Amino acid sequence: MPEGCILFSIRGVKTPEKVDMHSEAFLHSLMRKQLRLSVACAVAFLVVLFGLPLANYFLPEVMATRILGFTLSWLILGIGFFPAVWVIAWIFIQRSIALEEQETREVLEGAGSSKAAVK
């Protein structure tokens, strides 16, 4: 299949169609990939957000362990929570930019190969 093409399903039959960077197909493809990334980052955030209370509930002895004068629970909350959220945000931004650049590159390469075929 030529690069820069997306498969569209019409009644179960997949047909290749060239994608213009300003087309609805390009926009939907990019939005679908970014939605998957957003859901993955949201799940990671929810794990971080609810992980500490769940660890306190299910592992109270471990979370009550004292380290440097603080319980492990407070140490994780004070030192680990915000860096974890920053890492999730950084990953989201990096991957989002990479997705946009990849989609743009694929469309431009497809446009370049179709112009070369016309000449």
Strand and helix order: EEHHEEH
The radius of gyration over CA amounts to 23 Å
Classify the oligomer: single chain
Average pLDDT reading: 82
Largest sheet: 2 strands, antiparallel
Share of helix, binned: over 70%
Taking pLDDT < 50 over at least 5 consecutive residues as the criterion, the unreliable ranges are: 1-16
User: Helical stretch count?
Assistant: 3
Q: Tell me the fraction of residues in β-strands, as a range.
A: 5-15%
Compute the separation of the termini in Å.
21 Å
> Helix/strand/pairing class, anyone?
alpha+beta
Give a count of the beta strands, DSSP E runs of length 2 or more: 4
Strand order of the largest sheet: 1-2
- What would you call the shape? elongated
Write the layout of secondary structure elements.
Layout: E1 5-10, E2 13-18, H1 24-58, H2 60-63, E3 66-67, E4 70-71, H3 72-118
Helix pairs in contact: 1-3
Summarize the structure.
By secondary structure, this protein is an alpha+beta fold. The chain has helices at about 25-60, 60-65, 70-119, and strands spanning about 5-10, 15-20, 65, 70.
Walk me through this protein's architecture.
- This protein has 119 residues and is an alpha+beta fold.
- The protein is 72% helix and 13% strand.
- It is built from 3 helices and 4 strands, in the order ββααββα.
- The strands form 2 sheets. It has a two-stranded antiparallel sheet with strand order 1-2. It has a two-stranded antiparallel ribbon with strand order 3-4.
- Strand 1 and strand 2 form a beta hairpin.
